[in-house]
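Re: export button greyed out
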Amino acid sequence: MCGRFTQISSGREVHAVMGLDGPEVDLRPRYNIAPSQNAAVVRNDAGGRQLSMLRWGLIPTWAKKPDIGNRLINARAETAAEKPSFRAAFSQRRCIVPADGFYEWRRECAVRQPWYVTTRGGEPMAFAGLWEHWRVPEVAGLQGSLADCQPNDIVETFTILTTGANGAMQSIHHRMPVILSPEAIRPWLAGEEVELGSAAEDLLMMHRVSRHMNNPRHDGPECIVALEAP
DNA sequence: CCAGACGTTGTT
DNA sequence: GTCTGG
DNA sequence: CCAGACGTTGTT
DNA sequence: GTCTGG
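Workaround output, generated via the alternate export path:
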């Protein structure tokens, strides 16, 4: 699956790799993006291919309360086109989530050991994602990072598609995010049919990291530093 | 007809 | 155990 | 995903 | 909103 990830590359790098239109945007490097936080996503709009900050955890339009978004941080690529929560977004509201790496946990002895997964070449990845919009109800009273929302505000949210793990990833976990090839970015955003299987076998590398990053408040470069071999 | 769910993950 | 917050 | 809370009362 | 279960 994918429950944490990083966005470290600069706005300039993301602009180039994702083929964005419009001006370059400044991005703060993020080493530990957790569900419910905002992250940069790429979408097509009237002005072309644009970067926006959306909340991670898809809230369907019909939801009366936003808490379902806490659980819809991933969507299975095998079924997202049919599921009521994702179907509309799958056909109408696709996005790319640029990422430099992601975390997976593996049970090792008694502990859940986090690993950091990134590309061998260091190039950013393009996760396949879906986005949705949700209208804050009249009787809101929302908590947490949505507490500042007013009734009828529109909250934009996203989810990351997952697929079966392949290659070295299988030794860590049985699911992984859908990583689009550079050629698949345009057709995915255009709503065309795209192969949503696993990435190339040799695309990724991975290492253990400190459980420091378990705490979502920790968001510095120390999160991705490799542990000494055990 | 209305009521209630609508999802993924991991773990058992 | 389960939910909320990050 | 993990971390941390999970409650009531009375008093300020 | 739309589908399933009763």
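Residues 1-4, 34-35, 73, 103-105, 112, 114, 211, 213-217 of chain A lie near DNA strand D (CB under 10 Å from a C1'). The button fix ships in the next patch.
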